[in-house]
Amino acid sequence: MFKEFLCSVFFLILAHVPLIANSQESVRLGIPVTEEDLLEFDLIAPPDGSGFPPGGGTAQEGKQIYDVNCAVCHGAGGEGTSGNTVIVGGDMQSEGPPLRTVGSYWPYASTLFDFIRRAMPATAPKSLTNEQVYQVTAYVLFMNGIVEEGTQINGDTIREIEMPNANGFIDRSHIQ
Description:
Blueprint: H1 2-21, H2 35-39, E1 56-57, H3 59-69, H4 71-74, H5 109-119, H6 130-143, E2 153-154
Antiparallel strand pairs: 1-2
């Protein structure tokens, strides 16, 4: 029975060899991407803060945006409404399972900006302006005690922010 099964599999593989061998033929799925299409492509926010959009904001400005768009899931003080919506507090050195939050786990402030810009608010991702994203980023960092309330967050200053767990990761990006 097993021998018959192997023969069937072998036959199926052989039957598809001509398709694999003819790699010159294109699949023709979707449409080609133009340079204009790429202009609206997502921002890639590397840890060095390069390529960030113009704008900026402070925690003072971000509180109102947070209260309207974020508090419903993340709570008024970042305490969350469920385990995965907690964004303030946490301890990576706890004896039990660590609570991973922006303040305790995330290694770069640019990651916070990028995440808010792409995915928040959860009910309307990408609906915040760049200015509002900077403001909310500043407010979340302020709630975690990482920046002062009046600290200006922008594409230049974000790279200077030292996150508490910045050294908690091993950079293996250079390994192939």
